[in-house]
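Re: export button greyed out
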Amino acid sequence: MTETNQPGQANEAGAGAPAPDPAELAGRERLSEQIVRTGMFGVQGTPDTSGYGGLKVRRPPPLSSPRPYGSYFDEVADALGGSLEREGWSFGDAVERVVSDRGELTFHVRRDHLITVAQRLRDDPALAFEIMTGVSGVHYPRDEGRELHAVYHFLSITHNRRVRVEVSVPDADPHIPSLVGVYPANDWHERETWDFFGLIFDGHPSLTRIEMPDDWKGHPQRKDYPLGGIPVEYRGATIPPPDERRAYQ
Amino acid sequence: MSTSADQADTAEGRVYNVSGQDWDEFVAAVDEAGDRTGEERIVVNMGPQHPSTHGVLRLVLTLDGETVTELRPVIGYLHTGIEKNLEYRTWTQGVTFVTRADYLMPIFNETAYCLAVERLLGIEDRIPERANVIRVLMMELNRISSHLGGIGPLGLELGASTVFIYGMREREKVLDLFELIAGLRMNMAFIRPGGVAQDLPSGAIEKLREFLSVMPGKVGEIRALFDAAPAFFARTKGISYLDLEGCMAFGVTGPMLRATGLPWDLRKSQPYCGYETYEFDVPTVKTCDAYGRYRIRMDEIDQSLRIIEQCVDRLAGKRPAHDPVMIEDAKIGWPARLALGPDGLGPAPDHIAHIMGQSMEALIHHFKLVTEGFRVPAGQVYAAIESPRGELGAHVVSDGGTRPFRVHLRDPSFNHLQALPAMAEGGLIADVIPAIASIDPVLGGVDR
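Workaround output, generated via the alternate export path:
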């Protein structure tokens, strides 16, 4: 990780030379990525700085992808846009932004339009996403004003396609319309997401806890909920519980 | 003491407390009060400790005579917080957690998770060929053991204990192979981000060939007992019916979907690990019932054997001088090669000699990679594979750190259990048992 190693050099070395070592190529490729953060690892609560390693964090996730999205993604976006327009909405009303990353397409949908979008995804023959493979919650405490994300994955057997729909809501108002009316398969998945993240799915027939006991307090998968655990003694040494060990960020 | 069958009037109506030895008094009291309406409804709690529930599954059944009028599955008894725990371990350590989710298909959990991590890293195309072949080999072996672990108990629950013994006996053959290849019979943490933990040990090819020569006959023994047995027909044909429309509504995939006649198999439609280079068929039937699902599973065992044979041929072929099973990337691939020592598996002696005696940098590198792990660029992916039970998805989110930010396993058993009321309500209570067995749920995966 020296500063002299520029991506331009990597390209020149390839010509005429014997077949480059794949490991070396991988290293060069990584070094040519854009650096977004440098400095220390996020060691906290200990004076031990052995975690210092000249940290360089590369390649941020794209917040919004420009067209073309690639693969079948433009076709899906166009079909969804056309379908929404027939319903009297524009694509921009319902979809905040589109992310095409690592060969997967994500529509960030405003929660008021979630049911409309899901209904169109299911019923429009050009989209035909027959199967909903459930909702998965993610808690981003640092994403202020949109801490809780609900991530839906749709599968179309007709077209052999997948698409992801993401809805984000603030922690103070964790309400999302339920999709059980459109996709009955989402019943237990929404209960699980409520149980683990405290996301309230309005209109769900019986939004009760599913994995945790009924009288449980809190929502365990949230980042502000501790993992718990006790230190373990082994041959005179004490090993702290996993959430108190040093973490590298 | 008046009567042992105490009664009290409450807002919900009259409540009778029956404490044993007082049934006659209870009946007399009910007759006297005119509470008998002609229909007798009993609410039965089946589980969470019940042998035919494939684990700690609780069913609340409302019965009218022998007919189930309402069925409510209750889960959560085996919740172990695997997804939460993953957020406090490195990406590589995560494998040892996901493998314990659905404990009858550990290799599939590992593969789904590793494919997701690899896609996040952007190294999907750089997984060595041999690692992919070993992954497919292990997955298909696991598919056989999982199906046998589903069909055996189905036999037991229907009173055919021979089938159970046969199923467990043949499953043992697969577990022996796992032990030989991975060192453990279950929860092997064998598939790792970037490849597999180690190469096949010497003698594995011979054992696999032996397995391939014996297994078709053994599967035939089970088929001879079940495929056309009238008693088995009576318990499974037309039982727990769920057609294509129902499958779509409930998001049902796997053998249950293929039993409706739709040949949907992610190994064919969205291939991963090089499945597109193997020859195999996707068996379907159009019965939509428990018998059809049994037939699908048996046919899939045959197809898995076909794939395993192709894997063994590839692995036994002439090997290039350089043929790794872990990605050639010093920042991701575990540096230590494992070798069998006098006290079991451990780092290979030549690697120890290298880091302890020759290269300080190699020692530091090894230490950093093992304790700290590797960083995964921020983003999210969803990797889905065809598990023995259906679509197993791993939704993995990274914040750019050395630990997963969020891992969610979309377990097929979890999803399919919610279709149980649709399959069993209106039927006899005895048919609930084959209905559960035809879903083949594993509660470790349901509750995670």
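Residues 129-157 of chain B form the longest helix (29 residues). The button fix ships in the next patch.
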